[in-house]
């Protein structure tokens, strides 16, 4: 089949909303775009384990500790589904991790902020997982089959994570004066970085045009950000917390909130390696990778021996 025919078949599948599968022909730029997005998503999941993992030993009760432990393990699992989906595009796990460790590949900006108090664990579950779900619900219908299927399972688990975080915030809000202040302080620090998770404004989003054309993304960064604000403001009001935005105001005409502009200079600094915890996060990942080397080598040696035994 000549290239024109292959392109026509690819476009026809997209227009019928059929998934593209690993063995299907796909344009090179579609493949590269997916490797970039899916692997950055995978990196976000495993780097995202770090700020929360930091609180496992300090959780305020056994129940809270078990829930947090399960959540952090889930994030590790999400990373694995997503690395596997990336590998189906003909790139090795070693290459993907190399890109993370050398700073060539990004991961979500949000994980470069510190978790200073237990309320931050509530804020991460409520806001960060809430934003992640808002973005990922549409990705269940993304055009690449292995990514779409991974997202179905991930979304189910993220919903539990979001409730876990909101429950922490609810409890703190009806606790002592200090506990309520702690919850408000976590909201103050995590609100704007959470809005940045959706990416730059549409007019500056260099990848969006192709992502929408190829049905990788189904909605734009600004549309999702708006929906997240609309959903989250009433949740904050319900538990007596205040969104730290002077410009937040219900707009009847658009049936949604008007809200302030995140600090995009801060966002650009964070995604280019200069956020509060970038060096610490990357350092921790590289150290974990080095410390796990003997496990990978032992597993490979075992697999080789098994192959030899089967062949003999
Ligand atoms: N952080 O042209 P766009 C989670 C980069 S999972 C860092 O708009 P695009 C679970 C972008 O890569 C959270 N970089 O890009 C969890 C691009 O640079 P590049 C992760 C960002 O791809 C919860 C440049 O800016 N979720 O939280 C960010 O169309 C709790 C221009 O941007 C996903 O990855 C950012 N926030 O839209 C785990 C979802 N925003 O690559 C533990 C899948 C933008 O050209 C605990 N990804 N950039 O060098 C997506 O939906 C998209 O990739 C966006 C960005 C929306 C993130």
Q: Can you describe this structure?
A:
- By secondary structure, this protein is mostly helical.
- The chain is 68% helix and 2% strand.
- It contains 13 helices and 2 strands.
- It has helices at residues 3-15, 28-47, 49-53, 62-87, 93-101, 118-139, 145-173, 177-196, 208-213, 221-238, 264-274, 278-291, 293-311, and strands at 249-251, 256-258.
- Strands 1-2 form a two-stranded antiparallel sheet.
- A hairpin with a 4-residue loop joins strand 1 (249-251) and strand 2 (256-258).
- Helix 6 (118-139) runs antiparallel to helix 7 (145-173) and helix 6 packs across helix 10 (221-238).
- It is globular.
- It starts with a helix and ends with a helix.
- The mean pLDDT is 97.
- Residues 36-37, 40-41, 44-45, 48, 52, 75, 106, 108-109, 124, 128-129, 132, 135, 196-200, 205-208, 211, 221, 271 line the site of Phenylacetyl coenzyme A (FAQ).
- Residues 36-37, 40-41, 44-45, 48, 52, 75, 106, 108-109, 124, 128-129, 132, 135, 196-200, 205-208, 211, 221, 271 line the site of Phenylacetyl coenzyme A.
Q: How would you sum up the major sheet?
A: 2 strands, antiparallel
The percentage of residues in β strands lies in: under 5%
Number of helices: 13
Task: Briefly note the structural class of the backbone.
Answer: mainly alpha
């Amino acid at each position: 089949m000549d290239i024109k025919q292959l392109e026509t078949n690819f476009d026809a599948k997209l227009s019928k909303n059929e998934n593209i599968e690993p063995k299907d022909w796909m344009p090179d730029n579609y493949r590269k775009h997916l490797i970039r997005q899916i692997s950055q998503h995978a990196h976000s999941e495993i780097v995202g384990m770090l700020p929360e993992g930091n609180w496992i030993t300090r959780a305020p009760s056994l129940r809270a500790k078990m829930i947090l432990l399960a959540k952090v393990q889930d994030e590790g699992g999400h990373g694995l589904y997503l690395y596997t989906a990336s590998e189906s595009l003909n790139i090795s796990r070693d290459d993907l991790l190399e890109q993370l460790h050398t700073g060539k590949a990004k991961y979500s900006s949000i994980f470069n902020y510190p978790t200073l108090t237990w309320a931050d664990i509530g804020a991460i579950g409520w806001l960060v997982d809430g934003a992640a779900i808002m973005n990922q619900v549409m990705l269940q219908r993304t055009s690449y089959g292995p990514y779409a299927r991974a997202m179905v399972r991930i979304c189910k688990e993220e919903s539990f994570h979001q409730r876990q975080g909101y429950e922490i915030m609810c409890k703190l809000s009806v606790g002592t004066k200090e506990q309520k202040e702690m919850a408000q302080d976590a909201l103050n620090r995590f609100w704007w970085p959470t809005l940045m998770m959706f990416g730059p404004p549409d007019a500056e989003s260099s990848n969006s045009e192709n992502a929408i054309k190829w049905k990788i993304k189904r909605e734009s960064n600004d549309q999702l950000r708006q929906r997240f604000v609309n959903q989250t403001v009433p949740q904050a009001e319900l538990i007596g917390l205040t969104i730290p935005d002077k410009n937040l105001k219900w707009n009847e005409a658009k049936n949604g909130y008007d809200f302030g502009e995140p600090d995009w200079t801060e966002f650009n600094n964070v995604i280019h390696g200069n956020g509060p915890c970038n060096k610490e996060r990357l350092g921790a990942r590289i150290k974990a990778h080095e410390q796990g080397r003997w496990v990978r080598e032992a597993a490979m040696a075992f697999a080789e021996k098994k192959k030899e035994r089967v062949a003999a």
